[in-house]
Amino acid sequence: MSGTVRELVFAEKSEEEKVLISLDIEDDKLFLLHFIIGNYFGPDLHDDDGNKRKQSAFQIQASSNLPTKEELSASLMKRAELERVYYYVLRNADPSLVFNRKVLSRYFNEKRNASNVDFPLFRDLYPLKLHPESRIRNQYKLIKSIVFINDPDTSCMREDCVDRFKLLTGLQSFTLSLNIDVTEVDDEPLETLGNHDESEPTLEVNGVIIADAQAEQMMGLMDIGECADAYLFRVSLPGVKRDERHFSCEVEDNGRVLVRGVTTTGEKQVHRYSQVFKMKTHNLCPPGHFSVSFHLPGPVHPQEFTGSFGTDGIFEGTVMKKLQNQTV
């Protein structure tokens, strides 16, 4: 992160006895990042009757009524979902205003100390004691008690901040057509699997390893890309359930990737409403549990992995490299 930053200040509007939030941040990229995380997300408060409007982190700060642990729900959200909203909001902004994932990691991970007093941090808005982090299967970073707000109320922000945000992003409306789901964590731990040395993807269906030529006809086709500090991979998974209770992706330090889930194709009969179709061909992957495993070109940081499963049947993951001059 670079640029001059000054601390978050509160400006009092005496005639309405209302406190407005002012982001006195000179660097435009830092301003946008903090504005998005503070307005499009907020503490996930208990809502017994279901009628309470969600409040953003900045609304909470402006009200000075900081929640207690008892007032927060036990929901979990993937950090990757916060990043997804950030990139979505800035989808039409100038690329020079968008941070890469490495810098985002610093924003999310760093704690306040003497060396970063000039930078806004995620923990300024979501204190660790109220929003602790955890991991599931060593793959996803989860943050507790945070909720997504697709139509934030920015009346708690000073008008010059709102105008600056609109000018930089080109957005006139704050409403987003995005759905962010909380994460359900299965209490049952996954079994430990042995390592595979193959660099090519290996597909296993119902406990049977499928030969490469046959696998390419069904699923498991894979592409790998890299930049200076990260790897990207895409895996073709047609007919796979996207439900997180059935789907997982694990990344290990040595670069091994293991994707597991359940397929819904290959049935002998397909029921559609009142109709029953008897399948004449069976070229797609048979139904049942499957796994796809392969190796990335080098060692990685599993805790810096983000993944998304698109409706097009492509699972895409990004993970930071473990560079030689880095220490664990």
From TrEMBL:
Domain SHSP: 212-328
Name of the featured protein: SHSP domain-containing protein
PROSITE patterns hit by this protein: SHSP
Superkingdom per UniProt: Eukaryota
Coiled coil regions in record: none
Assigned protein family: Belongs to the small heat shock protein (HSP20) family.
